[in-house]
Amino acid sequence: MEPLEYLQNRLDPEQFEKIKVIDNPELHEFLAKYIDLLNPAKVFVCTDSKEDEDYVRRKAIEYGEEKPLAMEGHTVHYDGYYDQARDKARTKILVPKGVEIPFINTMDREEGLKEIHEIMRDIAKGKELFVCFFVLGPKNSIFTIPAVQLTDSAYVAHSEFILYRKGYEEFKRLGRDAKFLKFVHSAGELDERKTSKNIDKRRIYIDLEGETVYSANTQYGGNTIGLKKLAFRLTIRRAVQEGWLSEHMFLMRVNGPNGRKTYFTGAYPSMCGKTSTAMLPWENIVGDDLTFIVDMKGEARGANVEKGVFGIIQGVNQEDDPIIWQVLHSPNEIIFSNVLVKDGKPYWNDMGIPIPDEGENHSGKWWRGKKDAEGNEIPPSHKNARFTVSLEAFPNVDLEALEAPCGVRIGGMIFGGRDADTWPPVREAFDWAHGVITMGAALESETTAATLGKEGVRAFNPMAILDFLSVHIGDYLRNYLEFEKKLRIKPKIFAVNYFLRDKDGRWLNHKLDKAVWLKWMELRVHGDVDAIETPVGYIPKYEDLKRLFKEVLNKDYSREDYEKQFTIRVPEFLAKIERIEKIYKDVGNIPEELFKILEEERQRLLKAKEEYGDYISPFQLEKS
Ligand SMILES: Nc1nc2c(ncn2[C@@H]2O[C@H](COP(=O)(O)OP(=O)(O)OP(=O)(O)O)[C@@H](O)[C@H]2O)c(=O)[nH]1
Ligand SMILES: O=C([O-])CC(=O)C(=O)O
Ligand SMILES: [Mn+2]
């Protein structure tokens, strides 16, 4: 049967009409195939109308996937107790038989497709299936990538309405020209708490060739929200093939002297500070997780892939995060996930106010001291509990930049991670290649609760994208190095480390110190301050930071703190180069330039060590 004919038979006339007017046979075929496979009781097609969005929102509550909270617009959603983070082990990239790609969890495409299609057969039985259209990037711009989502979870569809720009009209406009991404999701059978029951059959399979991602028997956003990390695997590949960058980066405006606006991107692994940086109250947020960067007339231009925030709620408190706090306590449309609820109010770990001793959370009925099946005490909220809210709700959003069809010019690109003992708080690369290699490609960070598995383990995580990589790392890095050649005006590259600790494990910095590093980087982009040359890049001068700490945070910054934080730790840096070099040597197909740049850095460090010893005070380097 022809796909359109099938759809006409299968859908209510009202729903069918919405599909029929999109002139795209590939779409019709896709819809017919997966509606048939998933076999839902009914199908709802979302246009860009407010009524359709309202319908999805209502269904999320009717089907019990979300519950209303006391404040208007607020709901809570729970994922299963063992479904609280991204499942790396069961997320696989489907590749032709025999193909292996370093660092990537791959699977034979034929086999994978067969398995997932079997898992998905009749999986939506008795449920309603939502067909949703969105775009990645601003509408009608060079960044725009259309995408269609099928899901039997009203929570997933609802999240996407908050996080992405609507794309139904765009599909209609583009017709057959739409080169779109496809997402098929089913939460599978649900238990009495409306959480996915068959976790053993949880699968996230990414078919690069068909630009389709399948996700089954899971609800956690990172595993299910098609346009987020699932699309990210597909766009990384497109970017490498087409010569642009698709990155795990925030995008923000740092406000310089005399009203100067400078845009920065920042790539840090999951749970390592992207949202908290982009949300600094006196700067402006454009995006907090995913950025597309293209070259336009020799400039690097960036745009937020999304238009909302799926942010970590643990630790959000009135003092450090005043804006998020305010937004979370106002009648905005917000989905709280995996938090503690008592009397219709949400609570989370480390929120800076007393938390009730009982309520409902991701484990069901909860009381302080409750233990899970493994004997671990269950905290009030899960560490990876999140809030989903549109950026429009934030008073500090740069709306013009968010919707700019040509994006914004990027002045600086930052790389960072959880590094207890090596990198100083902030440092500038000597040039593009030095930054891309020693800061981006050499990034290591401790694992976090954003993925299932052990936390706090130092792990190689180049450009903060290792979990999402879908091409050979060598090709990915070559694309980065090549990208520079298209640029007339090159962003400066920086590295930050918010997570440096002393010997006793205490943090060497406060959470808001990052505000000072940003202002310093802004000045450096414009050549407004000098810096100290070290073997690993440029670092700030004490006088400049002292002044900025006073101006930005009204704090006194001592010489002792500066010296502790900015001492160049030669043995740690050398050990890191050793580790990174070994990793890349073992994989092959790596640009030669990477080894050259690491070797040069090693030689600079060895020379400095001879002259100054293992731990070099910035004051010593400043004098020389
Ligand atoms: N010690 C310390 N913790 C920080 C700092 N900045 C952020 N954090 C903590 O890091 C955690 C994650 O921060 P986010 O900004 O939400 O992480 P993200 O990079 O946006 O993460 P994803 O959404 O998972 O990609 C939170 O628990 C913060 O409290 C800092 O400067 N110092
Ligand atoms: O995708 C998710 O699960 C949330 C996120 O931003 C990340 O883990 O980097
Ligand atoms: Mn992320």
Question: Can you walk me through this structure?
Answer:
The mean pLDDT is 97. The chain is α+β, with helices and mostly antiparallel strands. The longest helix is centred in the last third of the chain and has 21 residues, at 592-612. Strand 20 and strand 21 form a beta hairpin. It contains 20 helices and 33 strands. Strands 1, 4, 5, 6, 7, 8, 9, 10 and 11 form a nine-stranded mixed sheet that branches. 52% of the residues are buried. It has three domains: 3-64 and 88-242, 3-Layer(aba) Sandwich (Phosphoenolpyruvate Carboxykinase, domain 1), CATH 3.40.449; 245-307 and 401-622, Phosphoenolpyruvate Carboxykinase, domain 3 (Alpha-Beta Complex); 310-392, Phosphoenolpyruvate Carboxykinase, domain 2. The chain binds guanosine-5'-triphosphate, oxaloacetate ion and manganese (II) ion. Manganese (II) ion (MN) binds at residues 248, 270, 289. Its EC number is 4.1.1.32. InterPro entries: PEP_carboxykin_GTP_CS (IPR018091), PEP_carboxykinase_C (IPR013035), PEP_carboxykinase_GTP (IPR008209), PEP_carboxykinase_GTP_C (IPR035077), PEP_carboxykinase_GTP_N (IPR035078), PEP_carboxykinase_N (IPR008210). It is an enzyme of class 4 (lyase). One of its GO terms (molecular function) is phosphoenolpyruvate carboxykinase (GTP) activity. This is Phosphoenolpyruvate carboxykinase [GTP].
